[in-house]
Amino acid sequence: MYKKEFEIRWSDVDANGHLANSAYVNYMSHTRVGFFKKANLSLEELLNTGIGPIIFSEQIYYFKESFLSETISVSLAVSGLSEDFRFFRFEHNFYNKEGKHLATCDVLGSWIDLKTRKLATLPEHLKLIIDQFPKADHFKVLTKEDTRVAGKRPLDLR
After folding, report:
1. Are 134 and 78 in contact (CB under 8 A)?
2. What's the whole-model pTM score?
3. Which of 18, 19, 60, 128 has the fewest CB atoms within 10 Å around its CB?
4. Which residue in 69, 71, 59 sits closest to 11, CA to CA?
5. What are phi and psi of 19, to 5 degrees?
């Protein structure tokens, strides 16, 4: 499991004085970038390959508030990968300095070809790196159906 610490800044709190939901998303994104870098998969490496990560969904469950100037840690565990490495699921957990569980989030995503803007198949050298990602205890091999489990589909306006 990978962890990153953050001090809650003035710009991270909402009108209620607690950590804003948008800050949770920003902290998770920053944690993923740190994780990728530590796993020898920097964003620069991805960009040089013409591939970038995309997020399909983020399902956040909030348990306990956190406030300005508190230090929190955000963890990342790889909870799912498809056999072809095309889809991934990460689990983020938020903890205060006492170790109290503040929130959890399941993030489902994939990889996009930055030129065609379509889902990408990763080059072999990236698959080798991703195959070494540490896995959560409840890790699952993902299928394409797992990416549709919420049943959400686009509904365009006419």
Report:
1. yes
2. 0.91
3. 128
4. 69
5. -55, 125
- What are the chain's domains? 2-144 (3.10.129.10)
Sequence letter at residue 107? V
Tens-place pLDDT, residues 118-156: 999 899 999 999 998 989 999 999 998 888 877 788 889
* Residues facing 113 on adjacent strands: 51
Helix residue ranges, H only, the chain: 21-38, 43-49, 124-131
